[in-house]
Amino acid sequence: MTLLPSRASLEDDAAFAAFSCLATGTPSTPWLEEVENYVRARVLRVPDLHVLAFRDGDELIAVSAFYESEIELPANQPAGYPAWHLEVVAVAHPRQRNGVGLEVLDHTLSVMRDISPDRVFVVARAHLKNRASIGLCAKRGITPYVPSGTYWVMVGDLRAQ
Predict the structure, then answer these.
(1) What is d(CA 29, CA 53) in angstroms, rounded to the nearest whole number?
(2) Is residue 104 within 8 Å of 127, Cβ to Cβ?
(3) N or C, which terminus of the chain has less Cβ within 10 Å?
(4) Average pLDDT of span 15-23
(5) HSE value, Cβ hemisphere, 13 Å, CA-based, for 70
(6) Residue 26, pLDDT score
(7) Does 160 have pLDDT greater than 80?
């Protein structure tokens, strides 16, 4: 399957409201609940957020979102650099664990580079126990940088893609 993203808008509200990345009857996983609730209720309403919808026909199978940001590196003598903040990559439950997440991440990073080639850094957050997201990001060089509460702040360089 080849996924092609489209820009999402409030016209996509019904599909986003029905989006599910949780399997029915599975034990609660806080970070999956957080992502699902965010996609369903907020992602289309956040100002200045680039939201991509990934569909198979009429079915919404994944969502990603990102915004312009700045990162200060290195930690000991920081200087500000333009960056992207990867807000969310969410894949519908039946499509998880078969390469869709990596394809969504690749498309999202490509769109970031197309919008602003000068923004070379990408920042993301993942729950400390969310091995799937940490592993997915690591495949594209976005790795844990510093813990922040119950999350990793992760950083990557888009030039390495």
Answers:
(1) 23
(2) no
(3) N
(4) 89
(5) 5
(6) 65
(7) no
Record the pTM.
0.91
Q: What is the DSSP letter of 1?
A: -
Per the listing, tokens 């990867």 go with: 86
Instruction: Determine contact, residues 120/157, Cβ cutoff 8 Å.
Output: yes
Report how far apart the first and last C-alpha atoms of the chain are (Å, whole number): 22
In whole angstroms, how far apart are CA 138 and each of 2, 90, 109? Answer: 22, 16, 13
The sign one gets for the Cα dihedral 104, 46, 128, 122 is positive
Q: Smallest Cα–Cα separation from 121: which of 150, 145, 102?
A: 145
Measure the CA dihedral 109/111/115/116, to 10°: 20
Residue 161 to residue 113: CA distance in whole angstroms: 10
Phi first, then psi, for residue 30 (nearest 5°) are -55, -40
Separation CA 99–CA 106 (nearest Å): 11
pLDDT at 65 over 80: yes
Q: Give yes or no for residue 161 having a pLDDT over 80.
A: no
Mind listing the domains of the chain with CATH numbers? 5-160 (3.40.630.30)
**How many residues comprise the chain?**
161
